[in-house]
From TrEMBL:
Zn(2+) binds at residues 54, 57, 80, 83. The keyword Cytoplasm applies. It is an enzyme of class 3 (hydrolase). Its main location: cytoplasm. It comes from the Archaea. It catalyses: Endonucleolytic cleavage of RNA, removing 5'-extranucleotides from tRNA precursor. Its EC number is 3.1.26.5. Binds 1 zinc ion per subunit. Belongs to the eukaryotic/archaeal RNase P protein component 4 family. It comes from Halorubrum trueperi. This is Ribonuclease P protein component 4. InterPro entries: RNP4, Rpr2/Snm1/Rpp21. GO terms for biological process: tRNA 5'-leader removal. Consists of a catalytic RNA component and at least 4-5 protein subunits.
Length: 92
């Protein structure tokens, strides 16, 4: 684990705290900064974090506050309440 991945983890933790405090713009800034750090250092955002953020508007997704989560037959459907984008993830 290098310095960029540690910074990415810290920025996502700060984004989570900002969403809890209802500071959505600050959370967006943290997520955008984490993605820029990942691009610059060519390490990528870990899948655990990328599924917790909206790809279109960079908001940190928290079920009930900023996202709506539904289960279908073989997948999880996550809908962002800020921009309306939908992401579908398979599960067993």
């Amino acid at each position: 684990m290098g310095i960029p991945s540690e910074r990415i983890e810290r920025l996502f933790a700060l984004a989570r705290e900002a969403v809890v405090d209802d500071e959505y713009e600050r959370a967006r800034e943290y997520v955008a900064l984490a993605r820029r750090v990942a691009e610059r250092n060519r390490c990528g955002v870990p899948p655990a974090f990328s599924r917790r953020t909206c790809d279109d508007c960079d908001v940190y997704l928290r079920p009930g506050k900023t996202s709506r989560v539904r289960l279908q037959s073989s997948r999880v459907v996550v809908r962002c309440r800020e921009c309306g984008s939908t992401a579908r993830y398979p599960f067993d």
